[in-house]
Write a structure and sequence with these properties.
This protein is mostly beta strands. The chain folds into four domains: 2-48; 52-400, Methylamine Dehydrogenase, Chain H; 406-485, Immunoglobulin-like (Sandwich), CATH 2.60.40; 495-580, Immunoglobulin-like (Sandwich). It has four helices and 45 strands. The strands form eleven sheets. Strands 37, 40, 41, 43, 44 and 45 form a six-stranded mixed β-sheet that branches. Strands 1-28-27-26 form a four-stranded antiparallel β-sheet, with no helix packed on it. A four-stranded antiparallel β-sheet has the order 2-3-4-5, with no helix packed on it.
């Protein structure tokens, strides 16, 4: 019926034109759809997978994976995986074609952590059974029996202290090896000796047969004593006290009686994991809760620890998990659950910049305990191996590019008062990662990105006009750009004038301030007195009734530094700083 009407109502030439039009339209629709899909895919690549390439994916049916470690021997590289049913060893020497070597039976449990010392692997689990000890000397043998694995549950020596742990080593959450001194620290255990703290085993006499050395048990309250994870080097423990929301620095030279040197709260107060830079001056921390941060602390002076910077990953609400620092001290590689993993340039720890990321979990973003549990970045080739938590998902083998950040730093001030401004949002308008930088109490901002080039940068603060400037950014270099913002109170930027005379007394003062003023050759029609706090916020505006006089300012402000300034007929007095004691 449709064809009949078409031929009946149109000439042959018209039919040809209509046919060509429909053909073109059909092809255009396909092209538009293709471009849309390509654009969507490209955007996904740009925002999710940058400077990291997937080489292989190895699923393990019916198993979840917890943390991951690595091991290298005779020119070959291996990933050691904490599977819920097995400790799994995969040869990743050829990253495009990894090969599962062996799956060694272990306690059936979701939580597994692995570390190595010399030729031995140590595996903890919250499922009980003590510490699994595996001799890796047999690699690459595929026979389970070749690895002489056993569960260590307590020292067999029979003195009074050691008797307390014979057969009583049960569940442990995590572990770390002090390779400098040859001790393994087991964290978060239910051992009666460590009470959730750290149980220390001596590996020096025989790494295959650990010996009890001491414990962290300085608080009778389990949660207050509990160490979730930690980093240990040269008898100093940096303990992630997750329930306390702090990291503790612990002197462990005396294994039976360690001493807490200092305790520091982390940004979202759920301290999960810590890692020390090679120069021992900076500590990175992670908080395992919604919208958490990778944070950097200056610990060069333990009596005055300073938070240097903190950074989130791509999606709102994502949860950070485990971080590691490369031996060169320039980069941190971190697992972020649903956001996969990322690489952060930490060369300037006061300005952390995300320079690479790969999303191993494509079913969603944001809050939740899915996706990347752990990443191991220390294989000699540089290959990254990642363990995904979700059942059957398995191992990801990745190749990273470690690219230096382009830094942008400076100070933001009020254009008239020159007061530094805090809380200013600074956004580099690019396709790279948005750091969500904000100026601090001193007006200082620090941000950056990975791709060099010239970018527009927007500065925004409530009560001020947003300002956008163009800044060239260079890899590994710091671009310094100081910016002044115009207060929204002004229709145009007022000029500073000597025709408005102002004097304030007493100054400093713990009582009222008395402001004397005189307008010379200026009417008092719109004359106004303004007071700004140290953040550049206007806390007081008061009309002036005459061209000359005095005003008493009730001094109910908090102690600090303030700025007093008069405006009249589009002109401003020179600002006067006053100190409230």
């Amino acid at each position: 019926m449709k064809c009949h009407k078409l031929f009946k109502n149109h000439t042959f030439a018209q039919l040809v034109s209509i046919t060509i039009f429909h053909f073109i339209l059909k092809r255009m629709k396909k092209t538009i759809l293709f471009l849309f899909i390509l654009g969507f895919f490209t955007e996904g690549v740009l925002t999710q997978n940058v400077n990291i390439t997937q080489r292989a994916h190895v699923p393990f049916a019916g198993q979840t994976l917890a943390n991951i470690c690595g091991f290298a021997k005779n020119g070959r590289e291996y990933a050691l995986l904490g599977g819920s049913l097995y400790t799994i060893i995969v040869d990743v020497t050829q990253p495009d074609t990894p090969k599962t070597i062996v799956q060694i039976p272990s306690i059936n449990n979701l939580w597994k952590e692995i570390k190595t010392y010399k030729n031995i692997a140590y595996v903890t689990t919250e499922g009980g059974g003590g510490l699994q000890v595996i001799d890796l000397s047999a690699l690459p043998d595929t026979s389970v029996a070749a690895y002489k694995a056993y569960n260590y549950v307590g020292d067999t020596t029979r003195n009074i202290i050691d008797t307390a742990i014979i057969g009583k080593m049960r569940a442990f959450h995590a572990l770390h090896v002090d390779t400098t001194k040859g001790f393994v620290y087991l964290f978060g255990g239910n051992s009666a000796v460590s009470n959730g703290g750290a149980l220390v085993l001596d590996l020096k006499p025989d790494p295959y047969r650990p010996k009890y050395a001491g414990q962290f048990n300085i608080n009778t309250n389990y949660r207050a004593n509990y160490i979730h994870d930690g980093y240990v080097d040269n008898d100093t423990l940096f303990a992630a006290m997750i329930y306390n929301g702090t990291f503790n620095v612990v002197d462990f030279r005396n294994k039976k009686s360690p001493t807490v040197i200092v305790s520091q709260t982390t940004p979202t107060a759920f301290t999960h994991n810590v890692w020390l830079t090679p120069n021992r001056k900076t500590l990175l921390t992670t908080d395992e809760n919604t919208g958490s941060y990778l944070a950097a602390y200056d610990i060069s002076n333990l009596s005055s620890i300073k938070l240097l910077d903190k950074v989130q990953n791509l999606s709102t609400g994502s949860i950070v998990h485990n971080t590691h620092i490369l031996p060169n001290g320039n980069f941190a590689v971190t697992s972020w659950y649903k956001d996969g993993i990322n690489i952060v340039d930490i060369t300037r720890p006061q300005n952390l910049v995300v320079v690479g990321t790969y999303d191993t979990y494509t079913q969603g973003v944001g809050n939740g305990f899915n996706g990347a549990w752990g990443v191991y970045p220390f294989l000699p080739s540089g290959t990254l191996v990642v363990s995904n938590l979700d059942s059957g998902d398995g191992l990801y083998v990745l190749t990273p590019q470690y690219k230096r950040a382009c830094y942008l730093e400076g100070i933001v001030r009020d254009s008239v008062t020159k007061q530094v401004l805090s809380g200013v949002s600074v956004k580099i308008n690019s396709i790279d990662f948005d750091k969500k930088a904000v100026s601090d109490i001193g007006g200082n901002y620090r941000t950056g990105q990975v791709t060099a080039g010239t970018y527009s940068v927007t500065f925004s603060l409530s009560g001020y006009r947003s300002k956008t400037v163009n800044v060239p950014l260079v890899s590994g270099a710091v671009a310094q750009r100081d910016v002044e913002l115009v207060n929204s109170l002004y229709n145009s930027v007022p000029e500073l004038t000597d025709n408005i005379k102002v004097a304030v007394s007493p100054n400093p003062s713990s009582e009222d301030f008395y402001v004397q003023y005189r307008l010379e050759n200026i009417t008092a029609d719109d004359a106004t007195l303004y007071v700004y706090n140290i953040l550049g916020q206007n806390i007081l505006s008061q009309k002036l009734p005459t061209t000359e006089g005095g005003i008493s300012l009730k001094n109910n402000w908090q102690s600090g530094i303030y700025t007093i300034q008069l405006k009249a007929n589009g002109q401003l007095s020179h600002p006067i700083k006053v100190v409230k004691q």
